[in-house]
Amino acid sequence: MELKPGLSALVTGGAAGIGKALSLALAKKGIFVTIVDFSEEKGKEVASLVEKENAIFHSDLPFKSALSIKCDVTNAGQLSHAFKKHFETYGGLDICVNSAGVSLPMSFHEDQPGSTNPWRHTMNVNLISVIDSTRLAIQTMRAAQKPGVIINMGSSGGLYPLIGDPIYSASKGGVVMFTRSLVLLKRHGIRANVLCPEFVQTDLVSKMPSSFIEQMGGWVPMEAIIKGAFELISDESKAGACMWITNRRGLEYWPTPMEEAKYRLPSSKFRIQSSVISQLNLQLPKSFEKIVVDTLSHNFRSATSIVQTPVPLPIEPGHVLVKVIYVGVNASDVNFSSGHYFSGSKTDLASALPFDAGFEAVGIIAAIGESVHHWKVGTPAALIAFGGYAEYKMVPEEHILSVARPDPEIVAMLTCGLTPSIALEKAAYMESGKVVLVTAAAGGTGQFAVQLAKLAGNKVVATCGGKEKAAFLTDLGVDRVIDYKAEDIKTVLKNEYPKGVDIVYESVGGQMFDLCLNALAIHGKMVVIGMTSQYQGEHGWKPLNYTGLCENLLAKSQTLAGFFLMQYSHLWQQHLDKLFHLYSVGQLLISVDPKNFVGLSSVADAVEYLHSGKSVGKVVVCIDPSFSQQVSKL
Q: Cis bond leading into 314, ω under 30°?
């Protein structure tokens, strides 16, 4: 979320300490702020300061740019009134900061029956009220039908124990785990994150021994807290995130990836250990088969042949040999077979034939060369490299992607999954609360694009051809499916989205490109990941002219971006891990087309089937069914 004038924020505990500092920092961005605090006098003082900061951005408002509401956050009625007043004044809620907190160090175990149990007050303020305020914030944001961000104030005491104040530590630990468990709110365009600073010089911790503070690296400056909060608000990828702030380590997300790996394991359905898989028969043959392009042609079948080649022994230093189990079929296979992915004239390309065909595969590491230290024989592996259509493939070790299992669903995550995952983030700069249009949405890559857009909190429109595909997309949660065999895409977009769509994920080209460009909103972004309608044909791929393209982009300040996956290889493992996690916890559904293709001899059939327009989901070929069955049993 971009911090800009006109947004509104509600801050509990906003009259002092961190709450006050964040209220004023938000005001300096031109954001309206409601100060919710038990101290009416201090709340009014901060509200007055907020109004002065806001005066730079706003004049002649029909309402105050800051509200001060006296509130006991442990009183559900008073807290509900505060949110209602904010909504009535500003018409929505963009940011909620739950900063109210207390610390009452005491010997809780010495409480006697019938006593007031003052430690309960700490739990009520620090944890229960945060849960209640978060609940009200969610309701308010959804009522306004706009994206929002919730920042809950945790503490370093919620990450490691405070021996002198176990109740405070328990309450903040609860805030941390509560907030981190709210990651699925992102589906509704709402992100909840937790901020855990170490010791900040406020009234709450003013009595801490100076020697202890010095030992911990000194007081954390308020500027660091503001920086951390603004990062959690602005970064659309942060949902359920916990930021730990110390002088020793700066701003750091907790848990670290290494720590997170200890508990965030894939489902047992998808996990397989290399020690187990090494029990399979990995004896190397003397030779193997692969598909090569020996004639440049857009007709994949006539351009390719299956050849026998020796197993490259010994394995080159720094390389690994992968036993291929599944390969993925892509629309671009016909571009590759016609030489479109290579520079030079047709004559130069013809002299360089044959080329190894295929882009992606999953399998098992069958052998390793010298100086390979990060991979072992029997380890599941994936690769994105020319030459995937083969029984074995040797690649440099740095080209290997770590996966949990050599399954068809993993193949789908490679080219088809990584493309939208990276493109929507790096080329479309996708935020929450947008209208996202995905073309050819029932295909291998479209299925990922619509789900990732929904998980980011957007409204998704998708095009497809046929009732079966439309039903498939509806099951994936698409808000509006346009079946071009039953409806006119241009008419639907014009009538139902008169202001246009914000983001287009486009893979068809030709007339579809023109339709999408005309439907793009002001400041809209279109990412082109392919042009499948232009790939096939008697004479191959012919570039088209798009009349008026520059004028359209200029008139509406639009962005047109191309995306080619091979140029983002440094992000592959990171995004593959993200996709697998979403899949393993059930947030991401992956469809592999049910049509069965077995062996290298069926690859040409699979390519033609993909281009027939009949496929739903990812088209996959099983290269060695006997080996895949052994893996499945394990």
A: yes
